[in-house]
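Following up on my earlier thread - several people asked me to post the actual chain instead of describing it. Fair enough. Here it is, all 199 residues.
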Amino acid sequence: MLFVLTGDIQTGKTRWLEALVSELERSGAGVFGVVAPGVWEQGPREGEFRKLAIDNVLLPGRRRIRMADWIDPSDTNRDDQGSQLQLEWRFHDEAIGVVNRHFECFRTEGATCNVLVVDELGRLELEIGKGLTEAMQLLDEGPSERMPHALVVVRGWLADRVVSRYEDTWRKVHVIGPCAESREVVLGACVPDSVSDVR
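Reply from S.P.:
Thanks for posting it. Predicted structure:
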């Protein structure tokens, strides 16, 4: 099954996903992929935060790398992958290469996992074929015995595009949000029967 985790900015998608990944691992479900926590600073008003950067944490080993830094989208003195779309993030090509090699190794070395995690697919991947291209290739192959489930994170306005792209290949595509009900659905589908009593 393919789970499409979606929601607006600052709705806690990545924090929810990090907690879910930890629970899946404790329950015996092998997880492979990447989560993308933000780097935040306190804003001028109480409870206001500003996102300064995006890290990528490679699963399962938890290696953390800086993927992108915030930049004024009108800055014309840039040549990173996000410049074509005038994104507000300067993506680091070296970091994108590291993450792509992470996914490529999984694909070419015959590794296995219960759940492939991709946080996140955005305009780079879906509009111009850049960014996490190796993750897209894995998803394009669909489910298999060595990778029966996947969970991808996407902004709400791109969710229909992801569903449309993968519904034929994956057959079962389930759009979820960062909530307790979704947690139960994912755990129910992805935790191996032999260890389901751990929950």
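The radius of gyration is 17 Å. That should answer part of your original question.
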